[in-house]
Write a structure and sequence with these properties.
alpha+beta, 8-stranded antiparallel sheet
Length: 247
C-alpha cells in the first residue's frame, strides 16, 4: 500500500466522489442496476464512461460505457489525432470491441493481455464476456479484470471491472458481478409521464371544445373536467372525457 500512496493522494485531490446506492440506480439515463451496497461514483466521467469504485480508484474501478453510438469512441485520447482514435462501429465483432478497449488501456504504457473471450447473456441479449490482465505502468501493479458487452439497436454497452490481482480482485469481483447481473435497459419514466400529461391535456381540450355527449360533463372546461376526474377517482382513465377513439 505504501508505494500506492502518492497515487492515492493525487487521485483523492482531483477526483470528487458522490455516493450511489444501495437500491435501484440509473447509469447515464439508459442503464438500470440494482445495488446491494453503496458505491462511490467519480463526479466527472471520462468520455462515454461513468466510473465507480468501492475502495478507491487505485484499488478498483467499475466502468460503464453506455449507449456508445456508431462513430463514437469509448473515451478521449489526450494528444491523439482524432483519426487515430478507435471508433465504435455497430458491425464490430466482440474481439474487435475488446481490442478497442485495449487501445485506451495501454495508452499510458501499461501492458494488456486478453485471457479469455466467450459468449455471455447481457442486457437480455446475446453478448460477450472477456477476462484480462493489465500490468499498470504507473505503479507496476498487476490488475485482473473482466468485462461484459452487448450491441443493442446498433449501440454498444460495455461494463468493465478491474482491481489488483492480489487480495482486492478476489474480495471485490463478486460485488461487481452482482451489479452486472442486475443490469437492464432503464425505463424511460420521464418520457412516459410526459406522454400521460400531454394526453390528459389533449382530452381536456377536446372536452372543452366538443359538443356534450354521454360520458362527458356538459359545458365543462379543462379545469372543471380535471376536478371531475379527481373527485371521482378517474385520473388518467379517460372516462370523464368519453371514448376519444370513437371520434
Amino acid at each position: 500500500m505504501t508505494k500506492w500512496l502518492p497515487l492515492v493522494l493525487l487521485l483523492s485531490a482531483c477526483a470528487a466522489m458522490t455516493k450511489v446506492g444501495p437500491g435501484e440506480t440509473v447509469v447515464r439515463d439508459s442503464l438500470s442496476v440494482r445495488l446491494d451496497q453503496g458505491w462511490n461514483k467519480l463526479a466527472v466521467g471520462t468520455g462515454k464512461a461513468e466510473v465507480w469504485t468501492t475502495e478507491g480508484l487505485p484499488l478498483d474501478t467499475l466502468r460503464f460505457y453506455v449507449d456508445v453510438k456508431d462513430g463514437e469512441s469509448l473515451q478521449e485520447a489526450r494528444g491523439a489525432n482524432q483519426k487515430q482514435v478507435p471508433q465504435f462501429r455497430a458491425a464490430l465483432e466482440p474481439r474487435e470491441v475488446v481490442e478497442m478497449f485495449e487501445v485506451f488501456s495501454v495508452a499510458d504504457g501499461s501492458r494488456f493481455r486478453l485471457v479469455k473471450l466467450s459468449p455471455a447473456s447481457f442486457l437480455g441479449t446475446e453478448g460477450f464476456r472477456f477476462d484480462y490482465s493489465l500490468a499498470r505502468k504507473v505503479d507496476e501493479v498487476e490488475l485482473k479484470g473482466f468485462g461484459y458487452g452487448a450491441i443493442r439497436d446498433g449501440r454498444l454497452t460495455l461494463v468493465v471491472f478491474a482491481a489488483p490481482k492480489t487480495h482486492y480482485f478476489g474480495k471485490l469481483a463478486p460485488r461487481a458481478e452482482a451489479v452486472v447481473a442486475s443490469a437492464r435497459p432503464a425505463k424511460q419514466q420521464s418520457t412516459q409521464r410526459t406522454g400521460i400529461a400531454a394526453l390528459g391535456y389533449y382530452r381536456a381540450q377536446r372536452a372543452d371544445q366538443s359538443p356534450p355527449r354521454e360520458g362527458r360533463m356538459a359545458g365543462a372546461g379543462p379545469l372543471a373536467a380535471r376536478r371531475c376526474c379527481e373527485d371521482r377517482g378517474l385520473q388518467n382513465t379517460g372516462r370523464c372525457f368519453g371514448d376519444l377513439s370513437a371520434q
